[in-house]
Amino acid sequence: RALVPLTEDAGLHVARRLRRDLGHFRASVDLAFGAVLEGCRGHLPGSPERDGEWISGELAEIYLHLHQTGLAHSFEVWKGDELAGGVLGL
To answer: What is the pTM of this model?
Structure first.
């Protein structure tokens, strides 16, 4: 678990070019848990190929159950209406 202060008053400096580029993205929480899970499993078009499946079908079911009970969450990043990336957490 990590805590990263993402505000300028906390000392974060974002270069002008990065600030401009970040304007093309939007973030959400728990809006597309299933899609992020499938992306992590490598089962979405365009997701990176993996040598082995690190999230098995059984583990995916567990993650989905934990999400339904409010214990697992996703953070998504969107470019327009397309999911550009995301992470899962418990």
So the answer is: 0.71
Rounded to whole angstroms, the Cα distance separating 78 from 87 reads: 12
Higher pLDDT: 47 or 69? It is: 69
What is the C-alpha to C-alpha distance for residues 40 and 55, in angstroms, rounded to an integer?
7
Cβ-based neighbours of 76, under 8 Å, separated by 6 or more:
27, 28, 29, 31, 32, 35, 36, 83, 85, 86
State the angle between helix axes of 57-68 and 33-41 in degrees (0 to 180), rounded to the nearest 10.
160
Give first-to-last CA distance, the chain, whole Å: 10
Neighbours of 90 (CB within 10 A): 9
CA–CA distance, 86 with 90 (Å, rounded to integer)? 14
**Tens-place pLDDT, residues 19-49:** 888 788 899 999 999 999 988 887 666 666 6
| Residue entry with tokens 């973030």 | 27
